[in-house]
């Protein structure tokens, strides 16, 4: 099944979630609602809600319960984006002005805080402390990941392992618990919830590697922002680290990155992008993403043969190849 | 009983909380731990933990349960301070460099996020969803309060009611739920938990009004930062609003505030402070604080005559008069 077909099959449930998302951030404070809605309307793939719903199929699928988990996870993702944009000094996200650029950093910080808190009020309505625990621990890890990203800005000496640990915290964990919490909220088998966690974790790792590849190889039209944004803000990603291993370009690429750092991200990144694109870094990063996808699909093996299992596989294959 | 005697009587339990606070923010990320500990070591009155413990006396006082609530509330308070300092562009707090000034705004934002999240992991270990609910709703309100403060910066036309609603969200609510959650965690009578909530709410209102008065009438030594900080950053507080009602100084005070606004808070605030100090605004604000204290003490009436009741009264009286 193509991804579009899957979304259309899930449309009525996803519509419910979309409505709940909108309602959840309509507060009695005009500016907060406006800033939050601006972000919501900018869209997104809603991949976390999709995972929650599909994971819920492996248990007692109740939309009224699952929607709370789905809305919470999407809100947490949104809140982290708002705070990211402050840090990254990003002016556009998904082709739209960011909150920090449309308003200012202060508004963006409190909008993020507000969306985080709102997410928690929704999930705490489910009287399931173990869901609350898993979620709050994941947010802690996400924050640590964000701090690691700042620490590692422009650090060309960092290891690949370092990068992998960082994206684990920054991205993979939230996708992993989207799958896990969907299963838990549906009272599915404990073993299934763990398999789904592993699936989500590996898809999440591949998803982020693919995202980092797109920032180097994609066009502005594909990715909704100018390519090379990562490198300009100092975020040294997998393809860059792998490209730096090539002795022929190592010195020049390092110099280019230093030049960008010294210009506070204002310098042109096209030479650096050219060097990375021409290196083995692209292929090798793609291979690593593919290996994570293999592991994700393997994690599904022990799950019962429901249609949702096939859907999850389709998404994994899509993530491996996506170019937007 | 003097406040110092009360602290010394509670010393062993407060020490446990201090240790837990420290442990809770010692993460595997050096910079996060350092920034969080910096804030923790700067001290503070730990008034929220004190309220949690005293409220717990009206039920089944179990330190292992109450300490989680106390640590969570103090961490949430700390997290909000870190984010406040970003917004306020504050360089010192309690006479110490702020996180945003010692490191930078990005570090401060994620340190705040991290401390918030850490707080939630601690409280979710208590398998009591109603505590999680009350807490997450209070954080939402706090965020709205912070946004209102930004919206109202330098607005000399705002009403006193506006100010009161804002400090309710920004300060009083968290103190109110400190009392309420202490009682709930100790399985105390539902009616007692509500009385304690009302007590905390009214003390919290008085506490903030007193804080705002100190920023105008206190010395740098008393308050750990230069007086007039509020006005320089645009935070128009109760004494200012009341002073603006005086037709004799209205025009000049408004002009002074506008001058400070136009200078981006760089202009000298001493003339504005002088005008406010000489107005009826000080007395009237003090009277309002005193009325909240009266209401707080009245809220205690229906509670059983335990020593903790007397302690709460003593704290309320102290808040009414504190000058640090």
Automatic annotation (TrEMBL), chains A, B:
Endpoints of the signal sequence: none
UniProt xrefs under PROSITE patterns: POLYPRENYL_SYNTHASE_1, POLYPRENYL_SYNTHASE_2
Enzyme class label: transferase
Pfam families linked to this entry: polyprenyl_synt (PF00348)
Keywords (A to Z) from UniProt: Magnesium, Metal-binding, Transferase
Keyword Magnesium attributed: yes
Catalytic activity as recorded in UniProt: 4 isopentenyl diphosphate + (2E,6E)-farnesyl diphosphate = all-trans-heptaprenyl diphosphate + 4 diphosphate
Named cofactor requirement(s): Mg(2+)
Assembly with partners or alone: Heterodimer of component I and II.
Xref: PANTHER family: ALL TRANS-POLYPRENYL-DIPHOSPHATE SYNTHASE PDSS1, GERANYLGERANYL PYROPHOSPHATE SYNTHASE
Name recorded for this polypeptide: Heptaprenyl diphosphate synthase component 2
Originating organism: Paenibacillus abyssi
């Amino acid at each position: 099944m193509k991804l579009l077909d899957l979304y259309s099959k899930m449309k009525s449930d996803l519509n419910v979630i979309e409505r709940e998302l909108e309602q959840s951030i309509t507060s009695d404070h005009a500016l907060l609602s406006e800033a939050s809605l601006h972000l919501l309307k900018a869209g997104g793939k809603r991949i976390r809600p999709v995972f929650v719903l599909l994971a819920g199929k492996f248990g007692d699928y109740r939309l009224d319960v699952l929607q709370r988990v789905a809305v919470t996870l999407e809100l947490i993702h949104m809140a982290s984006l708002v705070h990211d944009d402050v840090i990254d000094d990003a002016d556009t996200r998904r082709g739209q002005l960011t909150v920090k650029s449309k308003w200012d950093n202060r508004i963006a910080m409190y909008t993020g805080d507000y969306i985080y808190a709102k997410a928690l009020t929704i999930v705490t309505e489910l009287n399931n402390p173990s869901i609350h625990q898993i979620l709050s621990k994941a947010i802690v890890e996400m924050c640590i990941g964000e701090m690691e990203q700042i620490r590692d800005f422009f650090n060309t000496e960092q290891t690949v392992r370092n990068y992998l640990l960082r994206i684990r915290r920054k991205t993979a964990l939230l996708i992993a618990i989207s799958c896990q919490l969907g299963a838990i909220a549906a009272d599915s088998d404990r073993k299934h919830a763990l398999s789904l966690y592993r699936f989500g974790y590996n898809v999440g790792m591949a998803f982020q590697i693919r995202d980092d590849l797109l920032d180097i190889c994609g066009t502005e039209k594909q990715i909704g922002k100018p390519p090379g944004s990562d490198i300009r803000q100092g975020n040294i990603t997998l393809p860059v680290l792998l490209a730096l291993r090539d002795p022929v370009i190592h010195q020049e690429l390092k110099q280019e990155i230093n030049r960008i750092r010294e210009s506070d991200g204002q310098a042109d990144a096209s030479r650096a992008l050219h060097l990375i694109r021409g290196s083995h870094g692209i292929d090798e990063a793609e291979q690593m993403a593919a290996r994570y996808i293999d592991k994700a699909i393997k994690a599904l093996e022990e799950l019962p043969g429901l249609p949702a299992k096939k859907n999850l596989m389709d998404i994994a294959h899509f993530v491996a190849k996506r170019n937007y």
